[in-house]
Amino acid sequence: MKYPNGIKKDKKRETCFSNRGMKLESELNDTNKYYLDLNIACIHKKPTPIKVVDVYYKSCKEAVITKAYFEKQSTLDYNGIYKGKYIDFEAKETKNSNYFPLKNIHTHQIKHMEKVIQMNGITFLIIRFSSLNLTFYLDGSKLLSFIEKNDRKSIPVSYFKEHGIQILDKLRPTIDYIKVIDDLYFKGGIYENK
Question: In angstroms, rounded to a whole number, what is the distance separating the alpha carbons of residues 108 and 167?
Answer without folding.
Answer: 26
